[in-house]
């Protein structure tokens, strides 16, 4: 699911404290090595860490301010920087061990153990990425122990893989729990915004989408206008009263499917309750809205077979309005479309009325 993937990636890069902690650890270690040795590599480590820290923090800020398309590119850069940091950190640990100084050797071991724990915690949503960063960190450290490490450090070589394997298991378990939590949250979000009877989005979804369309008018790359159709089913109550609620519920579901099949994929239909529906038509002018409304009425006037023992017939009255100016109030738009619906119902059955012209079919 794309939504789950996006949430997993975002959750990794929301944890900025770990980036700061890693930078502090590297800086302290490099300064300590520079004080205790005459080598030049600690200064190179400091420079590399400073560059990576600035680049990673800028990348994290860029993700917050980017569109979904731009965010994908930012994530790719952050993945690369994360693996690069792990490699630089591992090479720094190699340098610490290669000095042979007992303090620096112990410092390297503590650093790598802490880094593996932090990597497992931060990257649980993306375990494959976490495993790559762990490998980039641990391989130089293990190599340094084999080549330069004191004989007393054999226990680190023995316990290191066990520690890393344990952290990988924990990371995978946390990943599973995180995925289940996100899926449950998304499902709860969907249920809260879906009408159970017709499986159409409900009033909450309508309010969110309508606010989104209103705020987009006049912005770069957005549609210039959109239409709102308010719809009531004609003669639904007599059918519901005569055949019962079970048939009425089936009829509402069948009507919802016909409405959905009468509009484009970019359009959206909503059930407000009872026999009331709303349709949003992005990028639609007044004439096109009239055409869509007429098509919906035609679809709903065809007989329905909903298990009543005979075909049942209903119709639809539709009122519409078009939003084509910025800073429009969503509720005011709904009110205008609703007033046009009242005019359509007053004119008879299967009637369409527009709020601006009063015309329709």
UniProtKB/TrEMBL annotation:
Q: Is Transferase among this UniProt entry's keywords?
A: yes
Q: What is the annotated signal peptide range for this record?
A: none
Keywords of this entry: Membrane, Nucleotidyltransferase, Transferase, Transmembrane, Transmembrane helix
Q: Which residues cross the membrane?
A: 17-37, 43-63, 75-97, 103-120, 129-147, 153-172
- SUPFAM superfamilies named among the record's database cross-references: Nucleotide cyclase
User: Per its record, what are the GO molecular function terms?
Assistant: diguanylate cyclase activity
EC class: transferase
**SMART domains associated with the record:** GGDEF
* InterPro entries (alphabetical): DGC-Regulatory_Protein, GGDEF_dom, Nucleotide_cyclase, Rev_trsase/Diguanyl_cyclase
User: Record's PROSITE patterns?
Assistant: GGDEF (PS50887)
Q: What is its EC number?
A: 2.7.7.65
Domain GGDEF intervals: 224-357
Which PANTHER family is this protein grouped with?
Answer: DIGUANYLATE CYCLASE DGCT-RELATED
Protein's name in the database: GGDEF domain-containing protein
Origin species, per record, is Aquibium pacificus
